[in-house]
Design a protein that fits this description.
The chain is α/β, with parallel strands linked by helices and 448 residues long. 36% of the residues lie in helices and 6% in strands. The protein contains 14 helices and five strands. Strands 2-1-3-4-5 form a five-stranded parallel β-sheet, with helices on both faces. Strand 3, helix 8 and strand 4 form a beta-alpha-beta unit. The relative contact order is 0.13.
Amino acid sequence: MEAALRRTQPMYQEVKKMRQQHGYADICNIPGIKEICDIINRAFNSHLPAEDLDKDGFSTIKTFRGSSWRGKDCNDLDSRHHPGARPINGDVLTDSNCNGISGLDSETGLPYEDLLCNGTEPRGMILLGDSIGAHFHLPPQWFEAKSLNPSVFKDLLFILENEIDWPELSAATGHMNNTFGEVIKGPVDSIYMRLRERNRCNHRDYQNIGVNGGRSGSMNSTIVRSLVRNRMSDYPALVNIEVVGNDVCNGHPDTLSRMTKPDEFRKNMLDTLQYLDGVLPAGSHVWLTGLANGSLLYDNVHDRIYPLGSLRNDITYTDFYSYMNCLEISPCAGWLTDNSTLRYLTTKRAFELSDVLKNITATSEYKNFELVYLDVGIDEVIAEWEANGGEGWQLIEPVDGFHINQQANALAAAHFWKQLEKEYPDLMGKVNPNNDRIKELFGDQGGY
């Protein structure tokens, strides 16, 4: 270690000398470095695509908040062209909304957009949330001695560039088959995929603005402001706001005093909704998701073997949680603990914050969107899984013991869709009678 530190000294002294000579207060002001910092800031702080030539919020690359997170741009040189846009002149000459539908029907002389999409109520799916919505997943194969081999690291760069999140496989915006079977296992289902199946004119119209560590404060200050929608020239959207844990989760020993208080939570969410009313097209819908009952995490995994202990079966999740709490780096000291009183009090605050969301939904009206509320429903998903012969631990991420896994994401999508169909069918839009014709004419509509 000392030798490594000595080797870094000349580099440090050179940087220090440059800063003294040129008066740089920040390394990101150094020419050549500034551009790199701007890209990093755009992707990781503003949650916008790092590469976006026309600055319309959509990109042609997958990672760094590109098309894994938002529909792929079909013309990165024209900001009018992006997923979710209303077609320009019927998209006779070009596909301005990136849904793969363009041109004229030779029999009628009408644009295909008019024939196949007009009156079908197209809409996009937008997720504003935390690491649950972004679908955080650390491959357990990276932590198990018996599973370590070069093949489990072949997508390492892609995974890191996507912030160890998997929005392309998530319950909200999953849109591709799972081709990462060595490091993430399970089927893919999502609200976006079901909206697209209902109306293929919705192709590519998704945005996942899930942020690791997202909570009501960051929702209001940064996350919601990363949403891209033009009130006048874009279609309406179904927006899901989910901050299901971080307002009660932190790694501090005094975790209870660090939780968001109901009054603060109310203000953050009301400010977020007010902002949305100013940017969403009329006819949109906003769906608030309540906070989770995180006690089920400990209940389901506490006595099971943690991946690092899989070789000798000598480390349980209770051991892992205690170690994380000791280091004060637990993602949720209030739930990931063997202290049942603390777990109860954390759940109590989560339910209080969910009650705030219910009250906001019952007492608020907005000009450009209808507001609805749904419970997070993970406990119901687990109960249904167990009723069909599964075990609850099989739906929880093995490495962090905190998030739901790929299987659970697919089940959650089906669960939410069933609730929406039953309670709020208007949120989904019409079933497009032209879907088969679209498939016949345009195939996969350009894919993703």
